[in-house]
Amino acid sequence: MILRFKVRPVPEGIEVATERNWDKEMLFKGVTVSSMVTGMQNYKSGSLIQDAFDFLNPDQREFLMTGMTPEEWEEMFGEETGSVRRLEIEDDLAQLCREKLYDDSDK
């Protein structure tokens, strides 16, 4: 995934906008331009986004990837999002696999 964003320093940290909507900015409190440059260099070198931008919280990394704010994410997907929902899906898939395995072993 290619990340394209612009950064504007403000007293509280930086304002970030992504290519998905250059007019929508999100405040990254306490983050510096130089840390974003370093994160981008690490990301381009092959680091996972959570490793390259380990100084950002998950909502900020999501904004870099999708351009969606936490409020927009909640509005679109509701409360059952993120890792909790992923675990439920993985549990459901594991259960289906077990059922299939047991069904096939009876034959």
Q: What's the helix and strand layout?
A:
Layout: E1 5-10, E2 13-18, E3 21-29, H1 33-44, H2 49-52, H3 58-66, H4 70-77, H5 82-105
Molecular structure report:
The chain has two domains: 1-68, no CATH class; 78-107. The radius of gyration is 19 Å and the shape is elongated. The protein is α+β, with helices and mostly antiparallel strands. The protein has helices at residues 33-44, 49-52, 58-66, 70-77, 82-105, and strands spanning 5-10, 13-18, 21-29. Strand 2 and strand 3 (21-29) form a beta hairpin. The termini are far apart. It has a three-stranded antiparallel sheet with strand order 1-2-3, covered by helices on one side. The chain is built from five helices and three strands, in the order βββααααα.
**Low-confidence residue ranges:** none
Using only C-alpha atoms, the radius of gyration works out to: 19 Å
Mean pLDDT: 82
Tally of domains: 2
Strand portion: 15-25%
| Percentage of residues assigned to helices | 40-55%
Give the quaternary arrangement of the chains.
single chain
Structural class: alpha+beta
Largest sheet report: 3 strands, antiparallel
Keywords:
3 strands, 107 residues, 3-stranded antiparallel beta sheet, 2 domains, alpha+beta
Summarize the structure.
53% of the residues lie in helices and 20% in strands. With 107 residues, the protein is an alpha+beta fold.
